[in-house]
Amino acid sequence: MPAPDSISPDQVPHVVVIGGGFAGLWAVRGLARAAVRITLVDRGNHHLFQPLLYQVATAGLSAPDIAAPLRHILRGQRNVEVRMAAVRAIDPPRRRVLLEDGGELIYDQLVLAAGATHAYFGNDQWAEHAPGLKTLDDALQLRRRLLLAFERAEAEPDPRRRAAWLSFAIVGGGPTGVELAGTLAEIARHTLKREFRNIDPAAARVRLIEAGPRVLAGFPEDLSEQARRQLQRLGVEVSTGQAVTAIDGEGYHLGEAFVPARTVVWAAGVAASPLAATLGVPLDRAGRVPVQPDLQAPGQPEIFVAGDLAALEQDGRPVPGVAPAAKQMGRHVAHAIRARLAGRTIAPFRYRDYGNLATIGRMAAVVHLGRLKLSGVLAWWFWLLAHVFFLIGFRNRVVVLLNWTWAYWTYQRAARIILGRD
Amino acid sequence: MPAPDSISPDQVPHVVVIGGGFAGLWAVRGLARAAVRITLVDRGNHHLFQPLLYQVATAGLSAPDIAAPLRHILRGQRNVEVRMAAVRAIDPPRRRVLLEDGGELIYDQLVLAAGATHAYFGNDQWAEHAPGLKTLDDALQLRRRLLLAFERAEAEPDPRRRAAWLSFAIVGGGPTGVELAGTLAEIARHTLKREFRNIDPAAARVRLIEAGPRVLAGFPEDLSEQARRQLQRLGVEVSTGQAVTAIDGEGYHLGEAFVPARTVVWAAGVAASPLAATLGVPLDRAGRVPVQPDLQAPGQPEIFVAGDLAALEQDGRPVPGVAPAAKQMGRHVAHAIRARLAGRTIAPFRYRDYGNLATIGRMAAVVHLGRLKLSGVLAWWFWLLAHVFFLIGFRNRVVVLLNWTWAYWTYQRAARIILGRD
């Protein structure tokens, strides 16, 4: 393959990558030495380390600690241009990406890695009362709500209304829900101690609500049980086997019972980016693209789909929507594009499952790696080291470790600053 | 004086302090051992280290690095209750503070330390096009605008419009304007190097516009001249002696000439908090309260005014609106309230001027302490140490020093994350 520098930019194929998350960024990086020019389009200016997003929402980290500008990450890769823009639609027959600012990009190969957003299963009116957590703006908004609830409780003279401000519910017992519930209980019991005069923050009720039979359903049953016990030790009430049937500004319905709660967080469902629908291919129930084994969109050989937007089964089980799977897909798509340009056949994608980690709260986590199962303090250390290791940027790692060391010794959280307006 | 614990809360005088800035917070702390109960009211939940606010706006620091929750700072001071609320008005005849949430506080002594906001000298329509910098939300909004301007320029094919996106103006040559202009020039010339493909960020024009004859008018003339030279070395065009006469979304008028500029920042004027007007006393032209020498509001012996809201002359010169003056005033008010409770006479306030520092950009600053005048690298180190020393909280100091060390070696800025929406 000739070096990129020896070819004029207009002679090489144009690869457009939509989305600067794990899948998109890893695809771009995998094409660093390919004779292509790349345009990476993202609606934000940054790559986000999503596994630590809940830490921004719970005031442990600040937004820049877990994000880095895409331009900066890719500044040394000369064959890529970063474009900050929202994508309106894809027009496969004309091989065009249509931008919301009116611009258009013509592609030879398209990598669609636009990810997912939260889904309310047909109850979109819940969105206002039970925000979800996908972006940094979501996290800052959630942080604001969680911290304000204690402020409102402190100022509320009526005991029943005060109790409603101190009642929190997290809907969805997956990794995000478990992380949020455990950390929120820690904040109420430890971080805010002695700071209020009219309320006892430790009296706050934190409920984690899972409609299925157990939390962390992606883990073996014994680890789910460990997680439940660790959550309860932190002060979380865990409810399983019953779904939330209504949510409004005053509380929620769990089965027949109405529970007053001014703060409800949605961690229950994700839906694919609406861009998938503009491809003109059949989608699955969650709106994702059922891709071919090589990650091509069906019947669209110049379009690859990677990350949370791709629906794929392997050995009878779906490839999970986690960061390692997205990175592997991104890398595979880069290989596939290089193979196609060289006239070689494209190998099918194989997801390699290196294991599954979830953190629960202070010194509590579960780890499942092949036959190894850990829970408690040891699992927490494992989780911490793995996450700090995978953070992009030397500075971020140092700052995050410093914040955690400080938080461990003081029970404090560095980012308890309320930003924005109602 | 009896220990506070021996007195029932209802028997001791109630001191209400409005504003958790330097003046208000230092007043509260000065009353730690007084037999009073204190309510500190602030519309935010945090104390802000305002001297470093420009660093948040220019993406060098994140919001939580320069702020700490008021509750946390004061958790050990048992005679104070923190109330997060906006104040609507003061009702001196009934000794009441009226809150926007409908609540009321009855005071025996009131400390008004609500600070200042930006003023457009009767041109309020400029606010939309030329935002100012007083709060963390202002800083995040400004950061967004500054970073987005380069993104828009990169995506703009028309050369004239692209130039307008790369044209920046800072109106006002005081310390904030100088800091913003110097840092912005550094970002354009160094931080963004190699990151864009269609524009050269170093071609950005950064103009600092001062209507008076020189920048940093609070400093001796030779230091102003030094500051101007250091700014020019960093790439800032310094304009003095001419006022901006109009600002809109496309640019601004400087005298007769129209200058295209999509990003204009207002650092030119401050106006007192509108709460001053509800006191029912005569105000000065900037809306501040001309206080008596002991910081009492004229004719209102139970009301003290401290910080930027207080207008006071000393030895024929106004006490400046800087952090050290606000702290000294806060401390004085605490003394005055304790003296009054003990039946002693209240001494007049004396501002002690320990000197004046302003930073300009990378390794550039001016320092004026009595007969000592410094500029350049040495002044910058002095400025840095002084500011880190006065930051509240051990963790903040470590993180800020770490960020600056990193920024110094890499020319990078840690917080280049665009948050929020248009």
UniProtKB/TrEMBL annotation, chains A, B:
Domain External alternative NADH-ubiquinone oxidoreductase-like C-terminal positions: 355-405
Entry keyword set: FAD, Flavoprotein, Membrane, NAD, Oxidoreductase, Transit peptide, Transmembrane, Transmembrane helix
Pfam families: NDH2_C, Pyr_redox_2
Enzyme category, top tier: oxidoreductase
Keyword Flavoprotein: yes
FAD/NAD(P)-binding domain location: 14-330
GO molecular function, one term: NADH dehydrogenase (quinone) (non-electrogenic) activity
Catalytic activity as recorded in UniProt: a quinone + NADH + H(+) = a quinol + NAD(+)
Alphabetized InterPro entries for the sequence: FAD/NAD-bd_sf, FAD/NAD-binding_dom, NDH-2, NDH2-like_C
SUPFAM superfamilies found in the cross-reference section: FAD/NAD(P)-binding domain
Record carries keyword NAD: yes
Membrane-crossing segments per the record: 372-394
Superkingdom of this protein's organism: Bacteria
EC numbers: 1.6.5.9
Family: Belongs to the NADH dehydrogenase family.
Protein name: NADH:ubiquinone reductase (non-electrogenic)
Organism in which the protein naturally occurs: Luteimonas salinisoli
